[in-house]
Amino acid sequence: MKVAVIGTGYVGLTTAVSLAVKGHEVLGIDVDAAKIEQLSNGRSPIYEPGLDQVLLETLGQGKIRFSTNLVEAKEAQVVFVCVGTPETEDGEADLRYLHAALQDIATLHNHSPKERTLVIKSTVPVGTGDQAAVSLRHCKELQVVSNPEFLREGCALEDALNPSRIIVGADSEEAIAVMQTLYSGLSAPWVITTRANAELIKYASNAFLAARISFMNELARLSAVLGTDVTVVSHGMGLDSRIGSQFLRAGVGFGGSCFPKDTIALLKLANQHGVTLSLLEKVREVNASQPVWFFNQLVSKIPDLAGKRIAVLGLAFKPDTDDIREAPALRILAELQAAGAVVTAYDPIAAKAVEALFPDVEYVTTPEAAFAGAHAAVLVTEWQACVKLDWKLIKEQMEQPLLFDGRNAWPHDELKKAGFEYLGVGKS
Ligand SMILES: NC(=O)c1ccc[n+]([C@@H]2O[C@H](COP(=O)([O-])OP(=O)(O)OC[C@H]3O[C@@H](n4cnc5c(N)ncnc54)[C@H](O)[C@@H]3O)[C@@H](O)[C@H]2O)c1
Ligand SMILES: O=c1ccn([C@@H]2O[C@H](COP(=O)(O)OP(=O)(O)O[C@H]3O[C@H](CO)[C@@H](O)[C@H](O)[C@H]3O)[C@@H](O)[C@H]2O)c(=O)[nH]1
Fold it and tell me: Which residues bind substrate (predicted)?
């Protein structure tokens, strides 16, 4: 099919490339001309494993191209909207990019009318798809579908090509048939429902996953006091198939461009309808205090951090991404700086973006270099490069062999045997 994708960020670019892999003819659209030029030259503006190679392949096959001008999409049978829906100052979803994209689609459709399906993939509040259908009702032959995305950064391409489920909110058989043709190469369970249900499935999924993490983070705080090991506890819990083992890892809190903004957007949406989601409020509260709780663990061992050299390993909000949106590392760096620590940080990909926010931190190009002369080291993001280390060499290099494992990812037993003092999150 001929497909246009508006917005070539983490979701849009991944969607565009994976549709091209499945044989569709794809046009990626973005308002950012520099991004479009880079993409047209076969370079991905974001770091996402495997994406560069597939982008080059599909460009080479003539399956994908990029432009700043949606008018070039006049042949498109399907137009995806994948623009950002960030948080407004009030915490609601900011729909201004979505509205601009809808306006562009209306213009395109008026100039080049044809049977066309508009697919909203951006995460949007319940009711947005229905409102779009009403505001675009003058565009005859245009169907509006809600098709939320569940990919994770760091494995976006893999997730897009092997989705856990395909959720389609639509109100016509024709639109459902278009989606079935579009995704015919994908094997996943389908849920065909209303647009509103589809929109709520997206927010509810993220909120539920965030709740599991906050639950485990509070349990880790309890474990720290009881002397129990939260990683063993979560393993034991996860073996119950009713619970499952995923998203039970305690850590320094969830970050990224989705859980933080989607949980507040859901709270705001509920409030607007007179409903208080008190559990979700707590989930966010626990998450906001988790990096501070972790930092206080460090302070309990080094009460005066002024002038102390602290190594920070990992800065991105999770491994295998360059994304630092709402990364817990930013909060930890701020606390360390306020306490007067001398910070040396390492991240394989995200250091440059963090440097713009924290220019006084020293950024090094190998993980080992971060440990040199350190009074303590802190693991914030469990990149393989930050976890698989030569601990013998590191012990020799550190001023004091004190480790704070914010992801319970360093080899606890080995480190203790080697003479390190180790403190994890609910694990000591
Ligand atoms: N990042 C994720 O892992 C993820 C996963 C699932 C869903 N989502 C949702 O998908 C949406 C996009 O997220 P993202 O992380 O890809 O955002 P992003 O910020 O990486 O990308 C958005 C892109 O849209 C472009 N854009 C903005 N307005 C435009 C317009 N009018 N016309 C054309 N391009 C325009 C921007 O220049 C940018 O390149 C959000 O609603 C998000 O909540 C994100
Ligand atoms: O057990 C866990 C799992 C995750 N995290 C943290 O939670 C955050 C989010 O991680 P993850 O969900 O893997 O990354 P995202 O790319 O933000 O993906 C989430 O948000 C996307 C955007 O909505 C959805 O599409 C995905 O399904 C959903 O997993 C990160 O800071 C992780 O470190 C934990 O602390 N403990």
Answer: 150-153, 202, 247-251, 255, 318
Residue with tokens 């004091």: 400
Is 75 annotated as ligand-binding? no
Please tell me the distance from the alpha carbon of residue 70 to that of residue 106, in angstroms, as a whole number: 11
| ipTM topping 0.90 | yes
Q: Whose CA is nearest to atom 6 of ligand 2?
A: 254
Phi-psi region of 217 (alpha: psi -120 to 50; beta: other; left: phi over 0): alpha
- Is any atom of ligand 2 closer than 6 Å to the C-beta of 409? no
Q: Which domains does the chain have, with CATH numbers?
A: 2-193 (3.40.50.720), 207-424 (3.40.50.720)
Q: Which atom of ligand 1 is nearest to the CA of 151?
A: 5
Written as six digits, the tokens of 151 are 């990919």
Active-site amino acid positions: 258
Distance in Å, CA 157 to ligand 1 centroid:
15
Q: How far apart are the C-alpha atoms of 404 and 239, rounded to whole Å?
A: 27
At residue 264, the pLDDT reads: 98
Task: Report the first-to-last Cα separation within the chain, whole angstroms.
Answer: 55
Counting from 1 in the atom list of ligand 2, the atom nearest the Cα of 202 is 23
